């Protein structure tokens, strides 16, 4: 049971949604945009999250789009992880989505909700957007704006008050690129990641993004240079990556820092072998 | 605005098991408790955290955890609970194959298995595993549940093939 009351609205247009947000804010109320709602319900039930107004964006037509527009793939923020995976529109995104939570939960968890998660640090759906030069369409009090994904996502989503994501745009040119997605968990197949690595071949380089290793998902071009340097043997490249890892590695109940580094090392070796970049 | 619910409880019409039912809802009530308040106790409160699947219902034909869905989210949509599947082949298969032990998880399994056999006509073993994975049976009667699913799928295939011959 959620032990507090809130006003719930399900608007039909982004303008309506933003107006509801601004009205709540003007009254000193805390408003939250809501899509799948799994995180908001879970943490509200535990008393770790509260809101005065919930604005459900599932009925916004822009947020339900999943398709191709010219040279870009368009994914609405309220598209569920299963809708994305089952569509097979871009397997890189589908495989990432399919590794999050369980199938029934993925019928509710949305792409925008996972990327914009406030309480869970993994945000694994951000990984393919970080690798694919994606753009994001926002709608806020000043209207719509289209920005590179990396302009609004640095470890977590940074939006202006009242702004919401309506759509993501990904260049179709990446669809043919070789990729490997590996997620390692402590025990069961459905769990938060000890290590998730998404690797995408891009000419003479491998792009890589990480979740679970640190307290946030990220892409690091310096690590990509190290791992893509075929002049050095595989074990040396991987060793360099571990030694020069740019952020503090998590040390928690899921896994110690040393164990996570060990799993990361094996994961990187496995990825490079699968992609044919071992030699 | 398609749906709005203020700070006070309101009366909403929800389409459940083929009928429109009036229900009094706080906006923060989960669908699980809204259904149980209607006397539909098939959806069970287990973990209430989306981990056990005992509360699984269909929202527009798609399995969801009723504990991770607000009651007001169901307004304008169609809900199916285990009570709405009394005549379904999967329910009979659960009986025929003794896919029941203590029974607490059974309604959730019946709902998710019904969605599986109606939406995936020829699922792979990997797909069956993926669909059933969200539901826990602490009596560990998983094999009988899989047997029930396979029985419905087999019967469905035989019926289709028989139909083709005619």
The average pLDDT value of chain B, as a whole number, equals: 94
- Major sheet strand order of chain B: 3-2-6-4-5
Top CATH class of the largest domain in chain A: Alpha Beta
Structural class of chain A: alpha+beta
Strands of the widest sheet of chain A, in order across it, are 4-5-10-6-7
The overall pLDDT of chain A, averaged over residues, is 96
What can you see in these coordinates?
The complex is a heterodimer of chains A (279) and B (166). Chain A has 279 residues and is α+β, with helices and mostly antiparallel strands. Chain A has 3 domains: 7-56, Uridine Diphospho-n-acetylenolpyruvylglucosamine Reductase, domain 2 (2-Layer Sandwich); 61-174, 2-Layer Sandwich (Uridine Diphospho-n-acetylenolpyruvylglucosamine Reductase, domain 3), CATH 3.30.465.10; 179-274, CO dehydrogenase flavoprotein, C-terminal domain (Enolase-like, domain 1), CATH 3.30.390. Chain A has 11 helices and 14 strands. Chain A has helices at residues 14-26, 38-45, 81-87, 91-98, 103-106, 111-115, 126-131, 149-152, 221-228, 234-243, 257-274; strands spanning 7-10, 31-34, 53-56, 66-69, 72-76, 135-140, 143-148, 153-154, 156-157, 164-171, 179-184, 195-202, 205-211, 218-219. In chain A, a hairpin with a 2-residue loop joins strand 4 and strand 5. The longest helix of chain A is centred in the C-terminal third of the chain and has 18 residues, at 257-274. Chain A is globular. The model of chain A has no long low-confidence stretch (mean pLDDT 96). By secondary structure, chain B is α+β, with helices and mostly antiparallel strands. Chain B folds into 2 domains: 10-81, Ubiquitin-like (UB roll); 85-165, DNA polymerase, domain 1 (Orthogonal Bundle), CATH 1.10.150. Chain B is built from 5 helices and 6 strands. Chain B has helices at residues 31-37, 89-96, 106-119, 125-132, 142-165, and strands at residues 3-5, 10-16, 19-25, 56-59, 62-65, 78-80. Chain B has a 5-stranded mixed sheet, with helices on both faces. In chain B, a hairpin with a 2-residue loop joins strand 4 (56-59) and strand 5 (62-65). Chain B starts with a strand and ends with a helix. At the A-B interface, strand 1, helix 2 and helix 5 of A face strand 1 and strand 5 of B.
């Amino acid at each position: 049971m959620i032990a507090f009351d809130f006003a719930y609205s399900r608007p039909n247009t982004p303008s309506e949604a933003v107006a509801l947000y601004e009205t709540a804010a003007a009254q000193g109320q805390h408003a939250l945009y809501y899509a799948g709602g799994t995180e908001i319900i879970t943490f509200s039930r535990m008393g770790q999250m509260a809101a005065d107004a919930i604005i459900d964006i599932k009925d916004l037509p822009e947020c339900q789009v999943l398709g191709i527009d010219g040279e870009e793939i368009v994914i609405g923020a309220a598209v569920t992880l299963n809708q994305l995976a089952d569509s097979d529109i871009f397997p890189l995104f589908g495989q990432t989505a399919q590794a999050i939570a369980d199938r029934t939960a993925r019928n509710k968890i949305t792409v925008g909700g996972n990327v914009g998660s406030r309480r869970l640090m993994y945000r694994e759906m951000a990984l393919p957007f970080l690798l694919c030069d994606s753009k994001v369409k926002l709608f806020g009090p000043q209207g719509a704006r289209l920005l590179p994904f990396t302009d609004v996502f640095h470890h977590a989503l940074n939006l202006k008050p009242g702004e919401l994501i309506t759509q993501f745009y990904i260049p179709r040119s990446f669809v043919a690129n070789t990729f490997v997605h590996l997620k390692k968990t402590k025990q069961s197949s459905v769990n938060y990641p000890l290590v998730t690595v998404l690797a995408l071949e891009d000419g003479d380089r491998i792009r890589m993004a990480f979740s679970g290793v640190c307290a946030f998902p990220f892409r690091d071009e310096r690590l990509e240079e190290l791992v893509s340097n075929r002049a050095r043997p595989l074990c040396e490249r991987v060793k360099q990556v571990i030694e020069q890892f740019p952020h503090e590695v998590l040390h928690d109940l899921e896994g110690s820092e040393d164990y996570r580094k060990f799993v990361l090392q094996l994961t990187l070796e496995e990825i490079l072998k699968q992609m044919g970049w071992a030699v | 605005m398609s749906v709005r619910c203020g700070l006070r409880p309101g009366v909403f019409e929800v389409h459940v098991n083929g009928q429109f039912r009036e229900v009094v809802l706080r906006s923060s009530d989960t669908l699980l408790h809204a259904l149980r308040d209607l006397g539909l106790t098939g959806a069970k409160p287990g973990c209430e955290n989306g981990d056990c699947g005992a509360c699984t219902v269909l929202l527009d034909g798609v399995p969801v955890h009723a504990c991770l869905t607000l009651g007001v989210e169901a307004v304008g949509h169609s809900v199916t609970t285990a009570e709405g599947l009394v005549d379904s082949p999967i329910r009979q298969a659960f009986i025929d194959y003794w896919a029941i032990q203590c029974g607490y998880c059974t309604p959730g399994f019946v709902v998710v298995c019904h969605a599986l056999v109606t939406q995936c006509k020829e699922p792979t073993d990997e797909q069956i595993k993926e669909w059933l994975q969200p539901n826990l049976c602490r009596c560990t009667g998983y094999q009988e549940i899989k047997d029930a699913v396979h029985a419905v799928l087999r019967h469905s295939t035989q019926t289709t093939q028989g139909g083709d011959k005619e």
